Amino acid sequence: MKKSLRQRGYTLVELMIVVSIIAVMAAGIAPAITTAMYDGRAANAASDLVRLGGRARAEATFTGLAHLLSYSRDATNLGQVRLARGVNNRCNLQGWGAATPVVDGVLMITYNAADSRSHVIDLQPESGVAALDICYQPDGSMLTRTGTGLFAAPNGALRFTITHTISSTAQGVVRKVLFPYGGVARLDI
Fold first, then answer.
1. What span, in angstroms and rounded, lies between the C-alpha atoms of 105 and 52?
2. Beta sheet of 102-107, edge-to-edge order
3. How many domains does the chain have?
4. CA 37, chain centre distance (Å)
């Protein structure tokens, strides 16, 4: 009897077909994975903004000093919120300026990849203003201002939106953070 000399295994053609099928499938799901990654970053940014608002309110009460959340646009035109601690207990008696020490912040540039120009995560107030300050006093009151005027009680809650855009088109869920007058910052639906 003659034994077959052929060994068991896969031919090169079969392996190349399997590799090409895997490559086609990976190319098809890569955009979805990237979008999901950026949506996760937007969710983290919203959670961090809620955390920052809670910290400002809690530290104002705990330290007896006013605390300022200051929204502005950075050099790359992305939103940012910085937390600063005052030197006394009143928002309007502070010299809030460049010399005020910043203790924490939520900077949108940290949620965006340096190599991605099409995917952008941004933060802005629903009012559309370019600069907005929220100040918490130790007595629990929240005051606001736009520009450099005096702080006053807001007419209602303040909302910030965090969006993920691809080539200037909103993608996924638009996240909203609510700063209610006299309340704690929270995610809004």
1. 7
2. 102-107, 79-85, 67-73, 132-136, 142-145
3. 1
4. 13
Q: Which domain holds residue 110?
A: 13-188
- 103 conformational bin, left if phi > 0, alpha if psi -120 to 50, beta if neither: alpha
This prediction has a pTM of: 0.82
pLDDT at 115 over 70: no
Residue 187, pLDDT score: 92
| Cα dihedral 144/43/169/166 (nearest 10) | 130
In a domain, 17, yes or no: yes
The CATH number that applies at residue 173 is 3.55.40.10
Q: Tell me, yes or no, whether 153 lies in a domain.
A: yes
Nearest to 62 by CA among 107, 106, 103, 105: 103
pLDDT at 116: 67
- Which residue type is seen at 72? S
Instruction: Please report the pLDDT score of residue 99 as a whole number.
Output: 61
CA angle 42, 132, 67 (to 5 degrees): 90
- 16, with CB counted inside 10 A (0-12, 13-18, 19+), is exposed
